[in-house]
């Protein structure tokens, strides 16, 4: 049997500080109107007694829950297998922690989960939502809008029907793709292929458009559809070698897919970069540094994107109240850079 230890109460803090219960409540909940000497006595009493505010009672006063939902529109098998999500969550977590706010992770295994997520958000459990990895036909944006929670999206949205422009954070996917292809052309490569990401996501579409911006009237045989996974990269690379065995360079939509590409080229006896140069996208460490050869890639600051998403949401929450609190509709696009290693 364990003995239950009673928690210090608001009244106990008031007695220790020699002030009223109302004064303690205002100090603990960040209210105004308490002279600094009294506020300092309250803070000292809180520390001495180890008082922890009751979150439910505090929410009634502040109308804040100090919690943010992070909604990833992918099944958990994908989320926990792809380090991209870990990098972005780390950035989000760091920023929320700095603002004493909790991260609530919500995943969607399938369409049945969308309504569950929307109900949770509408239930008043969190102050806002950070949503990423959306697909073009995803109903989540509409459901989240209906739930009335301030939201920041990861990735450029591509939907209409809203009376308010979405707030989002993304990298320069199209510009980064252009950089990748120009780098390969600078190496003297003339038969450059592209393995796309999942084309129901704007990042993959933008990277394909960037590839076409530089290559121009590209041979359709030099474009193979992938899905941002190593197996998708393998499948697409095999298709390319079958259709265009003379390919001498490949721009791959992300580093994970590039893992599959390198594996297939090695099995086919193609040397990288001597026979086929390979460049990825993300600069996903440690993956890019540990491939054989190390992967030349386009770097986007994934962790900073997560931090910025959280920062924009918190800034909006602190500047307004209610369902419409949040930053004005806008997009923040972070730059990309080429990181040259051994594969190209």
Order of helices and strands: HHHHEHHEHEHEEHEHEHEHEHEHEE
Weakly predicted, low-confidence segments: 320-327
Annotation field: number of helices: 14
Oligomer: single chain
The main pleated sheet reads as: 6 strands, parallel
The whole-angstrom Rg is 25 Å
Distance between the termini: 65 Å
Shape: elongated
If you average the pLDDT, what whole number results?
86
What is the tally of beta strands?
12
Structural class: alpha/beta
Strand order of the largest sheet: 2-1-3-4-5-11
Fraction of residues in H or I helices: 40-55%
**How large is the share of residues in beta strands?**
15-25%
List the helices and strands and how they pair.
Blueprint: H1 10-17, H2 21-28, H3 36-49, H4 55-62, E1 67-72, H5 76-79, H6 83-98, E2 102-107, H7 112-122, E3 128-132, H8 140-147, E4 151-154, E5 167-171, H9 173-186, E6 192-195, H10 202-215, E7 223-224, H11 230-243, E8 249-252, H12 255-267, E9 277-282, H13 287-290, E10 296-299, H14 302-319, E11 331-334, E12 337-339
Helix pairs in contact: 1-2, 1-3, 2-3, 6-14, 7-8, 9-10, 11-12
Please give a structural write-up.
This protein is α/β, with parallel strands linked by helices. It has helices at 10-17, 21-28, 36-49, 55-62, 76-79, 83-98, 112-122, 140-147, 173-186, 202-215, 230-243, 255-267, 287-290, 302-319, and strands at residues 67-72, 102-107, 128-132, 151-154, 167-171, 192-195, 223-224, 249-252, 277-282, 296-299, 331-334, 337-339. The protein has a six-stranded parallel beta sheet, with helices on both faces. The chain has a six-stranded mixed beta sheet with strand order 7-6-8-9-10-12, sandwiched between helices. Helix 7 packs parallel to helix 8 and helix 9 (173-186) runs parallel beside helix 10 (202-215). The longest helix is centred in the last third of the chain and has 18 residues, at 302-319. Residues 320-327 have low confidence and may be disordered.
């Amino acid at each position: 049997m364990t003995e239950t230890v009673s928690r210090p109460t608001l009244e106990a803090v008031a007695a220790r500080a020699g002030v009223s219960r109302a004064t303690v409540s205002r100090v603990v909940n960040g209210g105004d109107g308490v002279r600094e000497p009294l506020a300092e006595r309250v803070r000292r009493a809180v520390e001495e007694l180890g008082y922890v505010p009751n979150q439910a009672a505090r929410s009634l006063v502040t109308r804040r829950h100090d919690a943010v939902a992070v909604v990833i529109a992918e099944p958990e098998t994908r989320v926990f297998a792809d380090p991209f999500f870990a990098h972005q969550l780390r950035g989000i977590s760091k920023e929320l922690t700095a603002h004493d706010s909790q991260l609530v992770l919500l995943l969607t295994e399938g369409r049945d989960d969308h309504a569950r997520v929307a109900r949770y958000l509408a239930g008043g459990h969190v102050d806002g939502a950070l949503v990423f990895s959306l697909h073009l036909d995803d109903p989540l944006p509409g459901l989240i809008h209906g739930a009335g929670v301030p939201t920041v999206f990861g990735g450029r949205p591509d939907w209409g029907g809203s009376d308010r422009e979405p707030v989002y954070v993304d990298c320069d996917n199209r510009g980064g793709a252009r950089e990748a292809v120009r780098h390969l052309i600078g190496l003297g490569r003339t038969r450059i292929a592209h393995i796309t990401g999942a084309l129901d996501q704007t990042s993959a579409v933008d990277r394909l458009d960037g590839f076409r911006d530089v290559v121009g009237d590209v041979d359709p045989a030099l474009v193979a559809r992938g899905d941002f996974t190593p197996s998708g990269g393998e499948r697409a690379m095999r298709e390319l070698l079958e259709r265009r065995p003379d390919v001498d360079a490949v721009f791959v939509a992300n580093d994970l897919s590039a893992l599959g590409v390198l594996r297939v080229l090695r099995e086919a006896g193609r040397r990288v970069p001597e026979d086929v140069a390979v460049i990825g996208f993300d600069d996903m460490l440690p993956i890019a540094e540990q491939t054989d050869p190390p992967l030349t890639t386009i770097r986007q600051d994934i962790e900073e994107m997560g931090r910025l998403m959280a920062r924009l949401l918190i800034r909006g929450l602190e500047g307004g109240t209610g369902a419409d609190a949040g930053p004005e509709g806008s997009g923040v696009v972070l730059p990309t850079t080429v990181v040259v290693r051994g594969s190209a």
